[in-house]
Amino acid sequence: MTFVSTNSGLPLDPIAEARRLWAEHGWAHAADGMAAVTSLMRAHQIALARVEAVLKPHGVTFARYEVLMLLYFSRKSSLPMALIGERLQVHPTSVTNAVDRLEAAGLVRRTPHPADRRSTIVELLDAGRELAEAATAELNTEVFAAPWLAPATVGSLIEVITELRRNAGDF
Amino acid sequence: MTFVSTNSGLPLDPIAEARRLWAEHGWAHAADGMAAVTSLMRAHQIALARVEAVLKPHGVTFARYEVLMLLYFSRKSSLPMALIGERLQVHPTSVTNAVDRLEAAGLVRRTPHPADRRSTIVELLDAGRELAEAATAELNTEVFAAPWLAPATVGSLIEVITELRRNAGDF
DNA sequence: GCTAGATAGTAGGGTGTCCGACTATATGAC
DNA sequence: GTCATATAGTCGGACACCCTACTATCTAGC
After folding, report:
1. Which of A77, A91, A37, A158 has the alpha carbon at shortest distance from B13?
2. CA A85 to chain CA mean position, Å
3. Less CB within 10 Å around the terminal CB: N or C of chain A?
4. With contact defined as beta carbons under 8 Å apart, do A71 and A31 qualify?
């Protein structure tokens, strides 16, 4: 919802403009909500692009990096597919997709579950562990250590979204 | 980056857990940044799912709805493809894709630009205008008027992300 | 004028997400 | 014990996004 209607050459904030138009059309009660949702969409786009740019040379995407880190932090460097999907809050098919590619790249390995033959265990391989560490080091210095916000503001963002997630029934 | 390592049955916040693990691994300086980025990813996922659910019965996705609203607010209910991509901050091919589907659904129409033969004007049709109004009405009441946050918090979220976007060179 | 470079739009390819459907396996009710 | 139900994972399809490459057209410098 980022649109501007003026023709001035000034660099307006498209979201603030959309918010103004919303109010003008009699939707003032929903203008802030629209602006908040649109802001989230754009912030996500910005953050993801930044992260993906750092990960690209390592040969993984953010989705696959998340799987690697989940395994990296797990006790035995291995987890069932279902648990991965649950933790990362994505659809089972998304896990299948990510693990397919990680396995093809030699970063993880599928293993049958010893007790439950329906289940598949994903195991982090050495190459995957090394990639996870290298990618994290670069991600930390290039993105996470210096977001686009002052330290206090970062905390504020985390707090607000934590409230949002809680109210949405996320945890 | 939403992963939990404990085995307690308590419903922990996965992002808070990831943040703790980050700090434990000597990455304390980047823990907040990681949590902020991960929070944005998840908030985006939640908000988008909510919006798409409302739009689905109207037969459009959020991406196409944004195009419709952009045209809806434009002076002559029509804009060049390039301008749409610029305002919505998406790649030109994404605009082609969205307009293809909107045109197939009879909601917009492509028209040659009178002066610049490279350019294509997208024009909002009556059906598109009606759909935009109906979808917006429902979106306003179902999502935007009642986000998952208290009114003051919504304002706070918008402010923080505005700062983020400005620092990222977004406007 | 005419050519080199910029701009508009599209096609093809890759990736991620979801949904619905399907197979295989496990579990619980009777 | 046996059968209905639930769960784990995968496949195919739809949609969004981006990138690279390509054509068509415009614009500016000489």
Report:
1. A158
2. 14
3. C
4. no
Q: How many CB atoms lie within 10 A of CB A75?
A: 8
Of B165, B37, B48, B39, whose CA–CA distance to A54 is shortest? B37
Q: Which residues are CB-neighbours of A161 under 8 A, at least 6 positions away?
A: B39, B40, B42, B43, B157
Residue A13, Cβ density class (10 Å: 0-12 exposed, 13-18 middle, ≥19 buried): middle
Q: What tens digit of pLDDT does each residue of A82-134 get?
A: 999 999 999 999 999 999 999 999 999 999 999 999 999 999 999 999 999 99
Measure CA A41 to chain center. 12
Query: Chain A 47-86, CB below 8 Å of chain B: which residues?
Result: 47-48, 50-51, 62, 66, 69-70, 73-75
CA-wise closest residue to B83 among B118, B120, B131, B129: B120
Distance of CA B46 to the CA centre of its chain: 11
How confident is the model over A9-18, as pLDDT tens digits?
Answer: 446 899 999 9
Sheet strands (E) in chain A: 78-80, 108-112, 120-124
